[in-house]
Amino acid sequence: MFDDPVIAIQSWLSRHDQSAAAWLVNEHRAQVLRAARSWGAPVWMEEDVVQEVFMRVFRSLPRFEPRMPFAHWLAVIARNTCAKLRRHWCHRHKLSAAFEDGAQELFDEAPSPQATPNTLLMRKEQMAHFEQALSQLSERDRRLLEGHSTALTPAQRVALHRARKRLRRLFHQP
Fold first, then answer.
1. Which of 154, 136, 134 is nearest to 145 (CA)?
2. What structural domains and CATH numbers belong to the chain?
3. 16 Cβ partners below 8 Å, 6+ apart?
4. Which of 9, 47, 80, 168 gets the highest tally of CB atoms within 10 A of its CB?
5. The whole model's pTM is what?
6. What number of helices (H) and strands (E) belong to the chain?
């Protein structure tokens, strides 16, 4: 079909050729997935990250300079998008566990049906350890972590950041 991203881009820009768009996505999807994973995106969110990156790519295609390799240009967009999504997610998510250090979200992730008894026991111990760390926080910190709005004042964002930091410290203590 296409053998060069520049040809596919020109086809998309001139005729909105859907096959050109599909080729670009299929050809470069793995690169975007690697970027998302390197930024710590959880598995259940990878497809959303890929979709967001390609939406930004197609909006920005008129500004693409053909003298620059498309893969490099895409890598910059993927990096910036992943950084923005990470910041957005960390501010909105009650525990910031999905992106920070690639940690698993203990509350939202159900154990798989193939989970071994050891895996289930380890998960139960992690939950108990997490709940114990959470109980050591002040009431104010727990309220901040458990349910904050998306429109936080700068002071509230700082307080939330500090509460998360205290929780991480308590959770990682032996």
1. 134
2. 5-92 (1.10.1740.10), 110-171 (no CATH)
3. none
4. 9
5. 0.53
6. 7, 0
